[in-house]
Design goal:
Layout (H helix, E strand, L loop, with lengths): L6 E3 L5 H37 L7 H26 L3 E6 L3 E7 L6 E7 L3 E6 L6 E6 L6 E5 L5 E2 L6 E5 L5 H9 L13 H7 L2 H14 L1
Antiparallel strand pairs: 1-2, 2-3, 3-4, 4-7, 5-6, 6-9, 7-8
Helix pairs in contact: 1-2, 3-5
Length: 217
């Protein structure tokens, strides 16, 4: 890729803030996972004690403590589930190719797709709110997918010619695929219909609304 971007998100001046946000989210989620393990371990320990016959004189209290820590485990798990739904896509696109860096919470919290448009086999949205997109491509030296573990090491992909991304609604990520990308590669069964324009507006209205929302924040 060269530096003649037709689209770049986040903008260079916001790049450091973007990376700090991603790093902080990962740290918070890893901490929450450790709390889940501790709470679950404590609840199991008290359940084992509850089953011991020579402690039957306090078995009610042991069971109560076990239940309390099990409830805490469930609450923490729900919190992690919400964090897993948090995701961000960094976009660097030129007229011929693009690099998409996807951050999420999970076994592979970072994926980097380097892609030449002519290598795209199929690209399509998978929901009516245009927040899930899947790209199938021909793998070669110009187009390839790299995935990274929580420790930052590169890991192999189960499928290295297809990738799916979740896009934040009403965002620069979604705006790229809805308004910019179709000028450079085909998105299957997608077009700016009157229905879409009525809901999301034209390109100027969409991105103006995003800019205005940033000013409010």
């Amino acid at each position: 890729m060269n530096d003649e971007y037709i689209y770049q998100y986040p903008a260079p001046e916001y790049m450091e803030n973007f990376k700090e946000m991603v790093a902080q989210r990962t740290t918070n989620t890893n901490g929450a996972r450790k709390k889940v393990i501790v709470c679950f371990g404590i609840s199991m320990a008290f359940l084992v004690l509850y089953c011991l016959p020579f402690l039957n004189f306090i078995d009610t209290y042991l069971l109560l403590v076990a239940v309390i820590f099990l409830c805490a485990t469930v609450i923490l798990l729900k919190g992690i589930t919400k964090k897993i739904g948090t995701h961000n896509l960094m976009i660097q696109a030129t007229e011929n190719d693009m690099v998409l860096t996807y951050y999420s919470v999970g076994a592979t919290p970072k994926k980097v797709l380097t892609l030449r448009y002519e290598d795209i086999i199929e690209c399509q949205f998978f929901d009516k709110s245009y927040t899930k997109i899947q790209i199938t491509f021909k793998k070669n030296k110009h187009s390839y997918l790299k995935s990274y573990s929580q420790t930052g090491g590169e890991v192999s992909n189960l499928v290295d010619t297809m990738v799916s991304f979740e896009l934040n609604p009403y965002s620069y990520e979604q705006g790229f695929f809805m308004y910019i990308a179709p000028d450079y590669f085909n998105i299957k069964k997608y077009a700016l219909t009157d229905k879409i324009l009525k809901k999301y507006g034209n390109i100027n209205e969409y991105f103006t609304r995003l800019a205005e929302s940033e000013e409010v924040e």
